[in-house]
């Protein structure tokens, strides 16, 4: 680890020396200033937010509320400036002297035809001629969105879903296979991957831009691996922040609001967010930028009592049921899951009967506090030299509370992510190096918390014996079966810690402070917990990347090449990640220096080349890209992309593309080693399996359930347990898990973009067909202790949990998953500045070719519709937007919970009042205006209405 830090800081020193040396080679030129005003051709009033850029340089300026600008440059007169703003036709103007203030009038052009994006090809290009589907949300759209925060504007993007885990944590996805911990969707902020390494996903916008600093968002649905490498198989969101050289000044933001107005799960609660942005150009070449924000509120509550186990009370008769299901497994209750289920045998109605019974567990609402916060800070130093070159250093910090869901629910408490980035950019070269530091703080896992709370009352064995004895006694005394189960549970839980009591809070705080999820098993009522629930994960990852445009050397076509390298370094905690060089029995025992061994390393690197060529008077654009990615744990993978864009006229653009995408297993999928509820969740790499045998010597849980049911039925019919087990041994299926491999997607896409009726109508349509191979998921298996599967003893061990080890393993699917979808977006500019936007998306899993060990988890509604109408200035300085969203019902599948998600619709609305005299805007809005409660995924929170008012103040320095 020391060598890693040493190398990192050595590289930083070399970078600074290089920058200073290069700066000295650049001949200083006199700074000149061009000032002027940009007006509307119809109203002759100044236009705010217009970009003025010196042609072929990075020297830019933005107009203020009155349309005025001051542009600084070192380019010698004469030179040309480019004037651009969405909704207006771009213009160029030649600067011949500085004798007077220039004045330019822009013609309105209600279209996105000239909008530029960079994410699709990593070079600037017109969005209409992008080789793949891409959406752009500019600052104008963000300001006019009714979403409570700019990040939530993603919810209305064509083809995109945004899952809400918490007020502070929202996760995007596109084109199916959705989850609240989405490993398949990448998020960048100014080119930096902002994922939390050990959790494996971006934590929404926890470390991203503030409301004041966001400039635009570009969203690429579908595979982007050819240019961005692994983990961008389902899509990419790229967020760009404001440039301090062109967006100088002091800005303040405040948002206050309320939610839980219906008192369904919480009394009415306040939320608030404050932010400040300071950007200053200190001299002709040097600028600084500082952002800070603080958000707090009361989170949405997850308290859905849907039972996932309604028909498993009695194994001999699956249709047997009671008013209160003793074997229930509720969505938002923990400690009542499959591994907490036991079989009790009683004499009922004159014959032996076996019932399944779950331990009682605790509701999610009793295990976490709904108060959440998000603190963000970033600061940057920016220096430019010459006409093209600039360098920068940026530091970002985010602190987050929220609820995160993967195999279990995780309460994130004071979790932090930090970034350090250095960057050098020119006309042809981009070099970037950054480091991310993660610390989960005071976070904890709800499943081991519930298990260990219950186990401080009674061990599983004692709990079963008391429950079984009490149930039989009550039945013998003539109590009906339903009431007998209730009385048996009351008896066995009479000394259990109860939510809301001081004893419960003290015990809970003790457990979440212990970093060891192995269950307590003292069996003594009131005994302190020996098992814990703390999530103690610390990691760093280091990324270096560079791209270079060789076009001026090649000349016959555009050629962009790039390379990147990433190294993960995880501090083993003995609980989630371990040092695999240590013996299995010692991995969760700290060494004399209080560490758990050496850091765990995981790395990947890759390179790509992209060729672009125009034909037939620029009507045909051909784009070819090829990327090679390497992880020492796997073979090298190639990601090709071929795309063609045909534009017979500027108004009509047709595209077709083919590409491969690969995803290396995340840290958790590859290297986890977590004992959680007596089921160890393990990565799929061979090193994690050494000495355990779950890859080659295990039975699948699905077959064990069938086997157990058949055995219990035979026992109730009079056979001994051993006789019944050996009679039904053929029901047990060997897992034979394959060697872990990267996940692959092959994607075909066609699309069409057009601008019609004098560019008032914009149509954007796409269709995709994806084939997934080696899909990554989890399967639960059982390994007989000291036995080989197939033997008599191994078969009998499947009836006794003490004689088997359970593992939930990340592995590859045997199936090919085929999915397809289409989306259509229409934007129409009506008279008097009214704008209508509507998009419709369809996604479906169409086939698999074999049965699989684990669930598919497509988790995406077939149909989703977004509709909005707005007017930026319905009367002077006052505008509005109303947005409606609907999606149909679908089946949600995950290791934690499954079930049907009902269809729902929401309506959001906002009105904005701009007050130019005091450089302020006021926004009043609501999301889920009608307060129609809905949930987006199984075990997720129930989301209600949120009502807010926001103030923004901008002072140009």
Automatic annotation (TrEMBL):
PANTHER family assigned to the protein according to its UniProt record, in alphabetical order: HEMOGLOBIN AND HEMOGLOBIN-HAPTOGLOBIN-BINDING PROTEIN 1-RELATED, TONB-DEPENDENT OUTER MEMBRANE RECEPTOR
**Key word Transmembrane helix present:** no
UniProt keywords, alphabetically: Cell outer membrane, Membrane, Receptor, Signal, TonB box, Transmembrane, Transmembrane beta strand, Transport
Q: Which SUPFAM superfamilies match?
A: Carboxypeptidase regulatory domain-like, Porins
**Protein name, please?**
TonB-dependent receptor
Q: How does it sit in the membrane?
A: Multi-pass membrane protein
Q: Which family does it belong to?
A: Belongs to the TonB-dependent receptor family.
Gene3D superfamilies from the UniProt entry: Carboxypeptidase-like, regulatory domain, TonB-dependent receptor, beta-barrel domain, TonB-dependent receptor, plug domain
Could you tell me which residue ranges the TonB-dependent receptor-like beta-barrel domain spans?
444-929
Q: Is Nucleotide-binding one of the keywords UniProt gives this record?
A: no
InterPro entries on file: Beta-barrel_TonB, Beta-barrel_TonB_sf, CarboxyPept-like_regulatory, Plug_dom, Plug_dom_sf, TonB-dep_rcpt-like
Q: Where in the cell is it found?
A: Cell outer membrane
Bilayer-crossing residues are none
Q: Which species is this UniProt entry from?
A: Chryseobacterium pyrolae
Domain TonB-dependent receptor plug intervals: 127-235
């Amino acid at each position: 680890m020391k060598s890693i830090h040493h190398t990192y800081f050595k590289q930083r020193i070399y970078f600074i020396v290089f920058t200073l040396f290069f700066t000295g080679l650049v001949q200083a030129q006199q700074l000149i200033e061009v000032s002027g005003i940009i007006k509307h051709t119809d109203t002759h009033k100044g236009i705010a937010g217009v970009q003025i850029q010196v042609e072929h340089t990075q020297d830019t300026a933005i107009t203020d509320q009155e349309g005025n600008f001051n542009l600084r440059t070192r380019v010698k007169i004469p030179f040309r400036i480019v004037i651009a703003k969405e909704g207006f036709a771009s213009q160029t103007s030649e600067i011949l002297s500085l004798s007077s203030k220039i004045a330019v009038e822009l013609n309105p052009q209600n279209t996105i035809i000239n909008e530029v994006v960079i994410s699709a090809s990593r070079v600037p290009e017109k969005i209409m001629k992008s080789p793949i589907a891409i959406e752009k949300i500019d600052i104008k759209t963000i300001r006019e969105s009714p979403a409570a925060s700019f990040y939530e504007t993603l919810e209305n993007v064509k083809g995109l879903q945004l899952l809400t885990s918490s007020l502070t944590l929202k996760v995007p996805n596109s084109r199916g296979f959705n989850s609240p911990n989405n490993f398949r969707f990448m998020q960048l902020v100014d080119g930096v991957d902002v994922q939390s390494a050990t959790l494996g996903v971006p934590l929404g916008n926890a470390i991203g831009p503030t409301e004041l600093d966001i400039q635009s968002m570009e969203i690429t649905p579908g595979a982007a691996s050819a240019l961005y490498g692994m983990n961008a198989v389902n899509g990419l969101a790229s967020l760009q922040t404001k440039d301090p050289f062109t967006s100088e000044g002091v800005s303040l933001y405040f948002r206050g609001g309320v939610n839980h107005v219906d008192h369904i799960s919480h009394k009415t609660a306040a939320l608030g967010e404050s932010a400040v942005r300071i950007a200053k150009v200190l001299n002709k070449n040097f600028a600084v930028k500082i952002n800070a924000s603080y958000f707090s509120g009361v989170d949405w509550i997850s308290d859905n009592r849907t039972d996932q186990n309604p028909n498993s009370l009695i194994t001999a008769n699956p249709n047997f049921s009671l008013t209160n299901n003793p074997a229930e497994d509720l969505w938002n209750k923990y400690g009542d899951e499959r591994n907490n289920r036991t079989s009790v045998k009683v004499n009922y109605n004159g014959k032996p009967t076996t019932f399944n019974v779950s331990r009682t567990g605790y509701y999610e609402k009793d295990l976490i506090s709904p108060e959440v916060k998000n603190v963000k800070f970033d600061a940057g130093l920016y220096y430019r030299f010459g006409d093209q070159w600039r360098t920068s250093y940026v530091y970002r910090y985010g602190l987050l509370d929220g609820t995160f869901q993967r195999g279990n629910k995780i309460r994130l408490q004071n979790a932090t992510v930090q970034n350090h980035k250095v960057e050098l950019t020119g006309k042809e070269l981009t070099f970037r190096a950054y480091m991310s530091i993660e610390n989960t703080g005071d976070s904890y896992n709800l499943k081991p918390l519930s298990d260990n709370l219950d186990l401080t009352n009674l061990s599983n064995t004692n709990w079963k014996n008391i429950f079984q004895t009490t149930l039989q006694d009550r039945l013998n005394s003539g109590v009906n079966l339903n009431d007998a189960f209730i009385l048996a549970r009351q008896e066995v839980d009479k000394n259990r810690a109860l939510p809301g009591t001081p004893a419960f809070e003290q015990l809970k705080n003790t457990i979440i402070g212990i970093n060891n999820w192995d269950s307590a098993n003292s069996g003594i009522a009131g005994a302190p917990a020996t098992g814990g629930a703390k999530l103690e994960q610390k990691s760093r990852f280091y990324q270096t990347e560079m791209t270079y445009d060789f076009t001026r050397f090649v000349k016959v076509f555009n050629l962009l090449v790039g390379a990147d390298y990433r190294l993960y370094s995880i501090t083993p905690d003995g609980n989630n990640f371990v040092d695999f060089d240590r013996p299995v029995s010692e991995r969760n025992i700290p060494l004399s220096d209080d560490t758990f061994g050496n850091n765990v390393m995981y790395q990947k690197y890759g390179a790509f080349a992209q060729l672009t060529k125009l034909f037939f008077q620029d009507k045909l654009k051909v784009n070819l890209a090829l990327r090679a990615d390497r992880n020492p744990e796997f073979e090298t993978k190639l990601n090709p992309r071929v795309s063609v864009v045909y534009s017979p006229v500027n108004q009509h653009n047709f595209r077709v593309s083919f590409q491969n995408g690969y995803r290396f297993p995340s840290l958790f999928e590859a290297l986890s080693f977590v004992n959680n509820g007596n089921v160890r969740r393990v990565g799929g790499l061979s090193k994690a399996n050494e000495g355990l045998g779950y890859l080659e010597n295990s039975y699948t849980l699905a077959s064990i359930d069938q086997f157990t049911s058949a055995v219990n039925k035979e026992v109730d019919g009079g056979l001994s347990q051993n006789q019944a087990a050996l009679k039904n041994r053929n029901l047990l299926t060997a897992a034979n898990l394959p060697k872990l491999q990267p996940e692959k997607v092959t994607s075909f896409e066609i699309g069409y973009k057009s601008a019609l009726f004098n560019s008032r109508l914009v149509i954007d349509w796409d269709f995709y067909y994806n084939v997934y191979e080696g899909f990554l998921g989890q399967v639960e298996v059982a390994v007989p202790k000291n036995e080989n599967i197939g033997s008599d003893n191994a078969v009998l061990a499947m009836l006794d949990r003490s004689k088997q080890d359970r593992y939930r393993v990340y592995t590859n699917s045997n199936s090919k998953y085929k999915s397809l979808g289409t989306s259509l977006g229409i934007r129409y500019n009506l008279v008097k500045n009214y704008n209508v936007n509507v998009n419709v998306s369809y996604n479906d899993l169409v086939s698999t070719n074999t049965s699989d060990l684990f669930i598919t988890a497509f988790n995406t509604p077939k149909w989703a519709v977004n509709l909005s109408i707005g007017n930026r200035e319905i009367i002077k300085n006052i505008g509005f937007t109303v947005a409606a969203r609907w999606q149909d019902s679908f089946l949600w599948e995950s290791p934690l919970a499954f079930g049907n998600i009902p269809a729902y619709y929401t309506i959001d609305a906002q009105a904005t009042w701009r007050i130019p005299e005091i450089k302020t805007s006021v926004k009043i809005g609501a999301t889920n205006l009608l307060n129609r409660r809905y949930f987006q995924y199984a075990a997720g929170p129930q989301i209600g209405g949120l009502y807010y008012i926001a103030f923004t103040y901008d002072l140009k320095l």
